[in-house]
Structure formats: structure tokens, C-alpha cells
TrEMBL record:
The protein, known as: SCO2521 family protein
Classification via NCBIfam families: SCO2521_fam (NF040565)
Length: 323
């Protein structure tokens, strides 16, 4: 006879963190090399698609955890289970590592054998009642000492892949990593998913708060946040590239050289919600209204094109005068 405790509890909260960086390879990886890089498990294949862009997604790997959950009110809640981690590579150029878990409203009062948790991949069960709101805010704030640190788990896998022998560790341009923390409160099936908050913080940190129907797969939530993180990274990187190039003070050749990495490696990567679950595509509309992701990107692209056009004129005259 199966007891109620043996049945998987319905998750009420999903939390995750995405780390995004430029792949340390001078040449972008093709589909075959991407699959080789992301093959984290011998028993599962890497998913590779070429339309509408080259995209590779690794199988999930699990990390067992037994620690306190981060909470905003200082509540000490021990939890046990497994955190799921996966890696995505877009156009052979942008690498992302994501760690995430689901949590039920309550868990058993005593620790169960590991077999109990292994058959619930990506689920972390609290001892007793879950302080849902405090846990969500704690994850967004960041883990303290002795607390479940999703960023550390995602970073550990990212570091492992960056040591892969396929990579020559020669980057075509300098860039910074970003990390996006996200939480999703579960709402009844049939209700409309909502993106309730997106914030930019210092040191490359972004936070996203969602409300997702309970029948939305966790992998779909992770995919949405990876897509947001990727396009935020593109915006952040190109803005920094333009700000640090001092185009107005640079001569024509220097200006073209400063902008060339953006043209060669980044401008073609802008493709919002290309890999997002259809049920969540409408959440991009929130970011298109405020802060206006695509509008800002189009302005940046036009600025780059205008600068290249302006700088090309004297170079053309110079070439003609010496011919």
C-alpha cells in the first residue's frame, strides 16, 4: 500500500540561477563540436537544433543537497533533495549554465533515504512547512553561509566545461559574465503566466520574478530565463563595448576596429524567444514595453552602423587619394 508521503508533493515554488558568458574559443563551435562539449551524461544525447539558430542543450545532471534554504526573514529551514543543472550553447558562441529546483509547500519532518529524493529529480523538500515568500526572496537576495547556493552549483559546472580540451581559451573580445536569479510561484493550471518583476543590479546581477501555471514544465521556465539572460548579456556587452571604445575620440581605423567584434560575433545573435516554450512567449511583451529590450538593441545596432558609415567615408577618400 502506498502512503501519501510516498507520492510526489505538488511544487509551489521554482527557483534558479543562470550564468552567461562568452565561450573561450576564437572560433565559434559547430553543431558537432557543441554536442561534444555539452555531453554531460553518456546515457543521454545533447539536443542540437539549427533553426532558427544553432542551439545546443545538454541533458540535466543532478547535485544532491542537504542544507538550509536561503530565506529573507532569517528562518532556518533545512531541505534535502537534488538540484538540476544544464548547459546551453547558442550559435557556438554564448555559453549558459543553469541550476534550478522545485519545492513543495511542505515536506516530511525527518530525513528520508536518498532513494526517496533520487526518484524526484530537481526537487528539494523542506523539513516541515516551506516559507514560500521568504525563500523566494532569499534566493533572489543570494545565499548566505551554509545555505543552498544555486549560483555556486551553476558556476561549478560552467568552470568544468570551460576546461574542455575543445576550447583554445582565446576569446575574440573581452566581456563580462552576468548572472540572473529567478523565482516562479506556481498558480492554478489555466491561469495566464506573468512576469511580475525584472531588475538590474550591480556586478552583472539580474533578478526575475514569475508566476507560472502549475502545469508549466520546469524546463520551460528555465528556458525562458536562459533566453532573458542571453539577450540581457548581449545588450550589456554591446553597451559596454560602445561606452569603452570612445568612438568620438578615436580615428577612423580605431573606431572600426573597436566595433568589429560586435559586427562579427554579436549582432546576428539577437533572436528573442527563439527557444522559449510557446505558452511563455507572451512574457517577452513585458520586457518589450519596459525596459524595451528590442527597442534598445535596435538603437545600439543603428548607432554602430552609423559610426561605421561615418568612419568609412574618410577611409574611402584616403584610399582613393592614394590609388
Amino acid at each position: 500500500m502506498t502512503t501519501a508521503l510516498a507520492q510526489p508533493a505538488r511544487p509551489v515554488l521554482v527557483c534558479g540561477e543562470v550564468r552567461t558568458c562568452l565561450l573561450p574559443s576564437f572560433q565559434a563551435l559547430d553543431g558537432r563540436a557543441a554536442a561534444q562539449l555539452l555531453r554531460l551524461r553518456a546515457d543521454e544525447h545533447v539536443r542540437v537544433s539549427e533553426r532558427p539558430n544553432l542551439y545546443a542543450l545538454s541533458p540535466e545532471v543532478l547535485t544532491g543537497v542537504d542544507c538550509r534554504l536561503p530565506t529573507s526573514n532569517g528562518a532556518k529551514v533545512r531541505a534535502v533533495g537534488t538540484v538540476a543543472t544544464r548547459v546551453a550553447l547558442t550559435e557556438g558562441r554564448l555559453l549558459q549554465s543553469t541550476a534550478y529546483f522545485s519545492a513543495p509547500a511542505a515536506g516530511p519532518d525527518t530525513r528520508r533515504p536518498w532513494g526517496h529524493y533520487l526518484v524526484r529529480p530537481g526537487v528539494v523538500e523542506p523539513f516541515g512547512k516551506l516559507p514560500e515568500q521568504a525563500t523566494a526572496q532569499g534566493v533572489l537576495r543570494g545565499a548566505g553561509r551554509g545555505e543552498l547556493d544555486l549560483g555556486m552549483i551553476a558556476e561549478s559546472l560552467l568552470t568544468r566545461l570551460l576546461r574542455h580540451p575543445l576550447l583554445d581559451r582565446k576569446v575574440p573580445f573581452k566581456s563580462r559574465r552576468t548572472h540572473l536569479r529567478w523565482t516562479a510561484h506556481r498558480i492554478p493550471a489555466g491561469e495566464r503566466a506573468e512576469l511580475t518583476r525584472f531588475t538590474l543590479a550591480e556586478n552583472g546581477l539580474r533578478t526575475v520574478e514569475l508566476r507560472l501555471p502549475e502545469d508549466t514544465p520546469v524546463s520551460a521556465a528555465a528556458g525562458l530565463c536562459e533566453d532573458l539572460a542571453l539577450h540581457d548579456w548581449l545588450l550589456t556587452t554591446v553597451v559596454h563595448m560602445l561606452d569603452s571604445s570612445r568612438l568620438a575620440a578615436a580615428d577612423g581605423r580605431a573606431a572600426v576596429q573597436a566595433l568589429r567584434p560586435a559586427v562579427d560575433h554579436l549582432l546576428h545573435l539577437w533572436m528573442p524567444h527563439a527557444q522559449v516554450d510557446r505558452s511563455l512567449v507572451h512574457l517577452w511583451e513585458v520586457l518589450e514595453r519596459e525596459p524595451g529590450f528590442t527597442r534598445q538593441w535596435q538603437n545600439l545596432v543603428q548607432r554602430i552602423r552609423d559610426q561605421l558609415a561615418v568612419q568609412a567615408i574618410p577611409l574611402l577618400h584616403q584610399a582613393l587619394s592614394t590609388s
